[in-house]
Amino acid sequence: MSPAAAAGRGSSPVAWLMAHTLSCPLVWGLIMLLWIMEPPRADAGNADTVSAERSMVWGPGLHAGIELPVRYFYIQAVSSRGHNFTSSPGAKIFKVTIKALSSNEYIRIHVPDPLDRNDGSYVMRYRMYGSVTEGLIIEVLHGDKHVAQSPYILKGPVYHEYCDCPEEDSHIWQQTLSCPSKETQISKDFAPFPIIDLERMLEEVPRRFAEKRGAIVHYTILNNNVYRRSLGKYTDFKMFSDEILLSLSRKVRLPDFEFYINVGDWPVEHRKANDTPGPLPMISWCGSVDSLDIILPTYDVTHSSLETLRGVTNDLLSIQGHTGPSWSNKTEQAFFRGRDSREERLQLVEMSQKYPDLLDAGITGYFFFREQEKLLGKAQLMGFFDFFKENDEKARKIAKEGQALARELLQPHRFYCYYYNVFQNYAKRQTSRPAIREKMEHVPQPTDSSAVCQCHRNKIVREEL
């Protein structure tokens, strides 16, 4: 299942939530509730002491070739009797140090304390502000003892986020990140588009979408360079598509391709696959059951992954350290805050006013529905809340399964895999060569001191069209 995998009718609540997490900000809020409310439960191992030797350390941050804005790995506390801890043995029981392998190299690395996930496991994050040639040494300690196979040696070179040094062989890059060989959602999204006619899109997209919606950005990726032009008045969010394209192209050579992304809040292509004329392969951050947009992870989770440990505190890693109350101490009430980007959100507020004991919902800012708010009808309360009140153990199990699935699918390195897979599928369906179109501008890579590094890969330079 992909990060945005679709669930069919009759799917479990967890499957449905995960299917819509990345394509619907409202459901993203609900899945985060499931994430933070899953309880730590005591087990026999918690009465024992933590064993440095038996405890486990793993994750992408222990591999030099997995280049991410913030690298991360996990620590599992294990007792001296070999039992995994399932509740926290203490927030400060592990200490991590990270430094350059060679004393001749100096590098600034932000190394916060491991985040206690309150279930016996910890997530360790670190952000590099420079690259090293020889490598890194990572020490994970419990008291004065090394944990598991510590110290961990990452043989260099090890590149930081802003080092423009892409891997030329995309297969090697995907293998290094352990990218899934197939993403069900991507296959589903591209099924209506066996070919992509760039000339047809060049003629039809501005007329159909830019004039009405005004939130379309036209990109061409050529020789691993990013070019774009804005189509419409509401394209400020191109900053988010720019940053992930630049970040990805610093890590792996992208295929040459040309595409249009909708940076608005809802999908745009509502033609059916068998319509005449047929649908266009528009890329969006949001999808629905009655649209055919090709879905990418939303800008907010992507941006927060890029900016972790540098101005963003609610990213997908940091949130794991805020697990909230135990299940037995939970408040049996749904909670929502957000702006009025969808009419259904206003209906949530109305439901909240009618059933305040079940739902606490509020709009933080009005933009789209300033006048229409008073005219909206009342939403009928469904039996959703009664189900969870009457089936507490099932609800706990759903929360646990949702948490486990979210932790697996919503890892930052999986976002890079997903983006590349979408772009690769798009590129191979093009029936003509992409081109730098009129009024397109080059989006440059950073060239300030933050981007200074020595690339040890041989870059391939191809002629541009």
Describe this structure in words.
By secondary structure, the chain is an alpha+beta fold. The protein has three domains: 13-38 and 317-409, no CATH class; 44-161, Immunoglobulin-like (Sandwich), CATH 2.60.40.10; 184-306 and 412-451, no CATH class. The protein is 27% helix and 17% strand. The chain is built from eleven helices and 17 strands. It has helices spanning 13-20, 25-37, 170-176, 184-190, 198-210, 238-251, 299-306, 343-354, 384-390, 392-409, 412-428, and strands at 56-58, 71-76, 95-100, 109-110, 115-116, 121-128, 135-142, 145-146, 152-155, 216-222, 225-231, 257-262, 283-284, 294-295, 334-338, 359-363, 441-443. It has a six-stranded mixed sheet, with helices on both faces. Strands 1, 2, 4, 5 and 6 form a five-stranded antiparallel sheet that branches. A hairpin with a 4-residue loop joins strand 5 (115-116) and strand 6. The longest helix is centred in the last third of the chain and has 18 residues, at 392-409. The chain is globular and about 70 Å long. 37% of the residues are buried. Mean pLDDT is 85; it is low at 1-42 and 375-382. InterPro entries: CAP10, Filamin/ABP280_repeat-like, Filamin/ABP280_rpt, Ig-like_fold, Ig_E-set, O-Glucosyltr/Glycosyltrsf_90. This is KDEL motif-containing 2 isoform X2.
